[in-house]
Design brief:
Elements (H helix, E strand, L loop, with lengths): L2 H9 L10 E4 L4 E3 L13 E4 L2 H6 L3 E2 L12 H5 L3 H10 L2 H14 L3 H12 L3 H19 L4 H7 L5 H12 L3 H6 L17 E6 L6 H11 L5 E4 L6 E7 L4 E7 L6 E8 L5 H12 L5 H9 L5 H6 L11 H10 L1 H11 L1 E7 L2 E4 L3 H4 L6 H11 L11 H9 L6 H10 L23 H10 L3
Parallel strand pairs: 2-4
Antiparallel strand pairs: 1-2, 1-3, 5-9, 6-7, 7-8, 8-9, 10-11
Pfam families: Ada_Zn_binding, AlkA_N, HTH_18
Organism: Streptomyces durocortorensis
InterPro entries: Ada-like_dom_sf, Ada_DNA_repair_Zn-bd, AlkA_N, AlkA_N_sf, Alkylbase_DNA_Glycosylase/TA, DNA_glycosylase, Homeodomain-like_sf, HTH_AraC
Length: 454
């Protein structure tokens, strides 16, 4: 979009562009989302930025009315396969907080200087600034939803020191951490002793329309017992699952019903440092950063698909909360995956309902399973020959997959679609695809449901 189009979106308060870009007002020193309800500023006073981090780097602070840090992410970063798109996905997954900028560059296969230059050129902010903006959002959520001490929140959000934390919060929100917490009122949970066990309530923003019922139908159909479940009646269901995370484990619950453009969720963690990573992985699973307007417009251009798009707008293409788990499940199917969980999965310290285990990590499967294909896949994941993290090179991952015994093109394509979030593959469009269904295609489910009599 050019700046004229962006200003028109701001003037009309168009929520479709929330997260796609941000605008700042030089006379107030504030940056906002396009749908901000405040009076539209004069064009001469407006500056546009690709990310919140770029606006913060430009010296602007977040608007108190529209909370621009709580918007959906740009769909562009999930689609792109170049170094910038891969870097944005890795930063979202918390790699900079855990491994620093050199660790990010190493995963991308470039020098830190090259990654810095690429991000600055396209986004107006480097990896450290992008991670800093993400940390500030995590800190605000913890300040306003838990009673954890400020010191603990600073380190849980990924800050290196309390002083850095205080300075960042004051710069971005123009308030102290204590003042930011006071705005949440008295309905806080999660005291000092409860910590992460109390859970963190969240609103996972998305762009409307969102076909929530179809997504929950699919999650229920694919759920692997002990690791995930869908409970409740249609329209009021809750999806729950366990997560294997860098610092520990987690349990997430997402409600189907929601009064606004978000999904209400709650995340319980053994280590609060995993909050950012858990949220981003949940967003990828539910495809919350998609642009439904662009998707529906493109599909509706096909005369065969147009009636289906009109019947069910806002369908999403689900990803995976754990790419390595998704690869194993794509290879062995749902029932075999359940057996693997029971035999090799790590039991939760405190089971919750039907959730009792975390899906086994590749190292627990390699050398332990009798299936040669599964053993080869697990070994490749465990020793790093096959990378399926948020910043993995999709072409390279597919080439590696095709060298493994028992992994054909359809399996590799399914892993690429679900584990790596590639929107441009269709494993069921290949010859013989309809006869191979450890996971049935989301598109196939949609076609059948939309064509059924009502």
């Amino acid at each position: 979009m050019d700046e004229r189009t962006r200003y028109e979106a701001v003037s009309s308060r168009d929520a479709r562009f929330d997260g796609v870009f941000f605008f700042a007002v030089v006379t107030t020193g504030i940056y906002c989302r396009p749908s901000c309800p405040a009076v539209t500023p004069k064009r001469a006073n407006v500056r546009f930025y690709a990310t919140a981090a770029a606006a913060q780097t430009g010296g602007f602070r977040a608007c108190r009315r529209c909370r621009p840090d709580a918007v959906p992410g740009s769909a562009e970063w999930n689609v792109r396969a170049d170094v910038v798109g891969r870097a944005m996905r890795l930063i979202g997954d918390g790699v900079v907080d855990r491994e620093g900028v050199p660790g990010l560059a190493g995963r991308l296969g470039y020098s830190a200087r090259h990654v810095q230059r690429q991000l600055n050129t396209e986004l107006g902010a480097g990896p450290a600034a992008l991670a800093r903006a993400q940390r500030s959002h995590t800190a605000r959520v913890l300040l306003q939803t838990t009673r954890l001490p400020v010191t603990e929140i600073a380190f849980a959000a990924g800050f290196a020191s309390v002083r850095q934390f205080n300075d960042t919060i004051r710069q971005i929100y123009a308030r102290t951490p204590s003042a930011l917490r006071a705005e949440a009122g008295t309905g806080l949970g999660g005291g000092r002793r409860e910590g992460a066990r109390a859970g963190v309530p969240l609103r996972l923003a998305h762009r409307r329309p969102y076909a929530t019922a179809a997504m929950f139908d699919l999650l229920a159909a694919e759920a692997v017992a002990r690791v995930e479940e869908v409970v409740g009646e249609p329209g009021r269901r809750t999806y729950r699952r366990t997560l294997r995370l860098p610092y520990g484990s987690g349990l997430v619950a997402v409600d189907e019903a929601s009064p606004g453009p978000w999904l209400e969720a709650r995340i319980q963690l053994t280590d609060l440092r995993d909050l950012t990573t858990a949220v981003q992985r949940l967003r990828r699973l539910l495809d919350l950063d998609a642009d439904p307007y662009a998707v529906d417009e493109a599909l509706a251009a096909d005369p065969h698909l147009a009636p289906l798009v009109a019947a069910r707008p806002g369908l999403r293409s689900p990803g995976a909360a754990d790419p390595e788990e998704a690869a194993v499940r794509a290879l062995v199917g749902r029932e075999r995956a359940r057996e693997l969980v029971e035999r090799y999965g790590k039991a939760l310290d405190v089971p919750c309902g039907g959730l009792t285990h975390v899906f086994p990590e590749p190292g627990a499967l390699a050398g332990s399973v009798e299936d040669p294909a599964l053993d080869a896949l697990a070994a490749a994941l465990a020793d790093g020959r096959l990378r399926l993290d948020a910043g993995a090179d999709r072409d390279e991952a597919e080439r590696t997959l095709l060298t493994l015994p028992g992994v054909g093109r359809r399996t590799a394509a399914l892993i690429r679609m679900r584990a790596l979030g590639d929107p441009d593959v269709d494993p069921y469009g290949m010859p013989g695809g309809e006869d191979w269904r450890p996971w049935r295609s989301y598109a196939v489910r949609h076609r059948e449901a939309a064509a059924a009599p009502r």
